[in-house]
Amino acid sequence: MLKYLSLLCVAFALLLTSCGSVPVTGRKQLNLVSNQEVLTLSLQQYDDFMKTAPKSTDKANTAVVQTVGRNIANAVETYLKNNGYADELASYAWEFNLVKSADVNAFCMPGGKIVVYEGILPYTQNEIGLAVVLGHEVAHAVAKHANERMSQQMLTEYGTAAAGTVLGKASTGVQQAAAVALGLGTQYGILLPYSRKQELEADKLGLIFMAMAGYDPSQAAAFWQRMSQQGSSTPEFMSTHPSDNTRIQQIQKDLPEALKYYGKGTGTTNTGSAKTSSQWKF
User: Fold this and answer.
1) CA distance 271 to 216
2) Which H or E run contains 97?
3) Domain total in the chain
4) What's the DSSP call for residue 190?
5) What are the pLDDT digits (tens) for 183-223?
6) Which residue, of 83, 202, 225, 237, has the greatest Cβ tally within 10 A?
7) Residue range(s) defining the domain that contains residue 159
8) What is the pTM of this model?
9) Does any domain span residue 12?
10) Is residue 272 included in any domain, yes or no?
11) Terminal CA-to-CA distance of the chain, rounded, Å?
12) What share of the chain is helix, strand, coil (3-state, %, to 5)?
């Protein structure tokens, strides 16, 4: 009995000292992994990807991706600096890349390494649609969702008490947690729903971040409606992303809060005026 009580005390202390909060939303999150370890691992994966990924040869579209991305990043950094998160700025070295691929996709690595696939551009259609995507991806970095998911996976794999021992050899533990293949029961019962929660949080933060940068967040729902035209045969409970209907409904609920930031010049001088789809080669 004493042994179990000791383990519970260790687990409680571990959880108590490993909690952080997400900027803007204030949601408490578990963070067992050091930011430096996550950045080191992710940068290695990012570099490996960029060595083989064919960069877009479309200079105009590449410039738009980089401009919109930088506008959002500047606005976010200004917000963090002005709201008690200045020490977080050293974690970000923003890059915005457009790669030549028909895949309808974009992703963000910790530290602000963001990749957009050409295949998503017909759905963004203009700068504001692109700001929806890039705001969402920037949000994943700012909310440190990768750190949180890795921490959750470590607890799932090793157990709360054992995670403290694993973290004694942090690099090994983190790499194992990043590579572990979870069983179906654990995957569908814990990690995937948690990922959907993060996706919806990234949607909300993305709305706010694009608004800070001067892009009208009220047009975000239209982008996701266009995305829904792709269709999906994967049930929501087995997907890492929310269903299109769930996402659009939540965006509409979050819109009033995002609009409070729109037009206030939080971080850039961008006016938010978007070019029409006919003016871009999307």
Assistant:
1) 9
2) strand 95-99
3) 1
4) I
5) 345 555 555 566 888 899 999 999 999 999 999 999 999 99
6) 202
7) 17-267
8) 0.79
9) no
10) no
11) 65
12) 65, 5, 30
